[in-house]
Amino acid sequence: MRVTAPPVTIKDIWDALTVTYGVAGSYGLLLETNLDSKVSLAKADLTTLETRLSAARAGYLDNINQAGLLQLTAARAALLDNLDALISSRLAAASYVTERGTDSAALASAWTAALATILGNFSAARIGYLDNINASLKELAYTNFASLVDDLAGNVVTGDCTDFANLFDNDEGTVIEYTGVNQYVEIAFPTACYIKRFRIMFVVNSNVNNRYKIEAYVDGAWENAHTGIVDLKENVWGDWTDITTPKVSNRFRVTITTFDTLARLNEVYLRGVPA
Amino acid sequence: MGALSEYVKKKFGVKTRSYPITDPVSCATTVTTILPNNPDRLSFTVVNLGATAMYVAWDRDVDDDHGVYVAPNGGSFSMIADEDGELVGYELFGIAITSANDIFTMVTEAS
User: With an 8 Å Cβ cutoff, are A1 and B74 in contact?
Assistant: First the structure.
């Protein structure tokens, strides 16, 4: 008599060991009391997590990867506490729809309309005119100008023509002589000045074909303030002449732009005000 | 006569024949006659093709506490005269414990 059984698989062994969960020492009981309880506890926590981590909140994680968040330092985050206090002292949101004064009272309708009118009239072009007021005030001030610039003696004078220092020495008995085109005489004031007018004393034995200009040193370059000055070839003062483009600088120069044979000047006066 | 036939004849002393049992082909959850009484039977093998266990015995008291266990899914029970004597020819009963099982039975008897 022979009794055979089919080969036993691992599954057969496992099933046999776990078939009676209630038997002490069985793997089934082990699974039920240990793994199941642990899984149950984990599942409870997972349920809580699922409840809190909604799809919307999970989506917020995508926003964490923002460079701007790195700028939220602890100090800046602390400022949020102040924000709440400030907001609490503010009016309700609806109140911010209406323009208000510093006392939080709503502006009168007349004010609102007036402000609108002013803003409408105050165009960009008109605002630009403000830049001219300062220059205009300076122009008015020159009439009250003291003798500071009239008497130019004592300021630093340089040049590349003959006896250049004589041009600003306040001495009508001394002359300078240009010997070539583009030669100049420069005067440097201790501070920047706004020069509005000039006059020149010429020399009788100069040449009427000569031409001169007045330049100002502005922002690192020489700029023309007045050009086309005619040589009167007389020992007389020319008229006070308004400079075409008044400049503000501490350095001005008289340059010959057209030289014909002989070019001499006696004296130069400048008028203006300290800038 | 082939060598196998020669051998078997010498072993049992008679010529034999072998054939499968076509009835029954399953063992029920009630007492089932698997093999009838047959004094000419020299050997047999019963294979449990079902998924549940079954028991066999030589009386109608066969049950899970009375009989020989035959494992499911290919477990087998076999007897041969020179080992088990005349018990080989006794009537054999079977019972499936959970659900009816298909069985496969081969017998060898004197021809």
Answer: no
